[in-house]
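ok new one. same drill as before - structure tokens go in, u give me an amino acid for every spot. 217 of them this time. try not to just spam alanines like last time pls lmao
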């Protein structure tokens, strides 16, 4: 599949693609589990990039069960006072290098931009407000706005419908296996952001890039 001749919109995942937050989120989750008696190896949960709440809770339960901890996974997750927005408040959490300029260039060309995330609205807006990026997007679709999460295409199909564009004339920018599958299933052309970690299998993407300075649409 080649790039669409006329690009109507670009739909961005958030964590690890727009905001450099994946490592911070995983470190926080590991610390939270250890505080409740969970035993796990460093970076064991890195695969959760792009995961929805159900997948996240299943991973927490796996660690708790293995560690002999009889606690409810949701209660463990909610025990963090700041909840799922905490990683976005950390000083080291920042936008991915070059993403602001890239979005500005797209909008100057008349290409619409959207953010599509499995993260809850309150956490997404915490991040975007902190970095003054809400106005970068023509639409923002979050995990609590849809019924089925990535790798299901619902989030991307919903976003295309809100924008009034054909998914076949859209670019999806992702960094996770589930997100890439969702974009492809929606009928979009998928570009994978490769951070070099090798944690996620991004081989199914139509193309990959390692810097927004090198991605030209």
């Amino acid at each position: 599949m080649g790039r669409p001749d006329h690009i109507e919109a670009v739909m961005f995942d958030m964590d690890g693609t727009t905001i450099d937050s994946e490592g911070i989120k995983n470190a926080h989750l590991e610390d939270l589990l250890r505080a409740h008696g969970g035993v796990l190896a460093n970076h064991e949960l890195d695969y959760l990039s792009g995961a929805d709440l159900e997948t996240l809770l299943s991973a927490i339960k796996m660690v708790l069960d293995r560690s002999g901890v009889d606690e409810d996974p949701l209660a463990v997750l909610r025990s963090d006072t700041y909840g799922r927005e905490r990683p976005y408040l950390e000083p080291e959490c920042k936008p991915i290098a070059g993403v602001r300029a890239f979005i500005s260039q797209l909008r100057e060309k008349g290409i619409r931009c959207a953010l599509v995330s499995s993260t809850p609205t309150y956490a997404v807006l915490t991040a975007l407000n902190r970095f003054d990026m809400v106005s970068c997007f023509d639409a923002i679709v979050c995990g609590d706005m849809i019924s089925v999460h990535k790798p299901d295409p619902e989030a991307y199909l919903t976003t295309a419908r809100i924008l009034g564009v054909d998914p076949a004339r859209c670019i999806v920018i992702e960094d996770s296996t589930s997100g890439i599958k969702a974009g492809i299933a929606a009928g979009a052309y998928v570009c994978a952001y490769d951070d070099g970690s090798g944690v996620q299998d991004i081989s199914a993407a139509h193309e990959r890039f390692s810097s927004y300075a090198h991605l030209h649409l």
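The chain has a mean pLDDT of 91. and btw The two ends are 15 Å apart (CA to CA).
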